[in-house]
């Protein structure tokens, strides 16, 4: 019972970290601006950095609100339709984050009530250590072949082929090349790593296993 609850809390907290980090990085104005420069997007698209910043702002606004009117001045119909699929994933992720927060909170209080706060935290910390080991293996595989991992992600989460864009006709693929997303994944991974390490440190809390509940 303790291991199940602790794992449930750790997994829920991990998803909450993922969702929060994804929302934060995907809405980070400075990140987009820096990527436009690092990936030489003005030269690639023939658009000024100032114009690209405006288009990037429209993308960020869309991910928050889901209003296609902010995209239609900049992107074609297929690109806007693909972003509708992306927004649907973000919307689902945000709803699942709320559920994850509820599950994590409820699970922690159940652990604390039955086993005591310190022992509950220790159990969650041990579960987090297992998750860290799992993510190290998964992250290593993604880092070694991000292109294949990115392709697999799209085939799993999108039911159509709108994400297969043509640089000759689609601005989005030129604005947001693979290095843009690899950098985003690394930043999200860093936030998750820090959060999980903090939680995993609870495994080493000192104190009696027989504390008063």
Write the layout of secondary structure elements.
Layout lengths: L1 H25 L2 H10 L2 H5 L3 H17 L11 H39 L1 H28 L1 H12 L13 H5 L2 H23 L13
Helix pairs in contact: 1-5, 1-6, 1-9, 2-4, 5-6, 6-7, 6-9
Question: What would you note in describing this structure?
Answer:
The protein is about 75% helix and about 0% strand. It is mainly α. The protein is elongated. The two termini are about 15 Å apart. The model has no long low-confidence stretch (mean pLDDT about 95).
Structural class: mainly alpha
Mean pLDDT across all residues, rounded? Answer: 94
Strand fraction: under 5%
Shape: elongated
Short description:
It contains nine helices and no strands. The chain is mainly alpha-helical.
Give short descriptive properties of this protein:
213 residues, mainly alpha, 9 helices
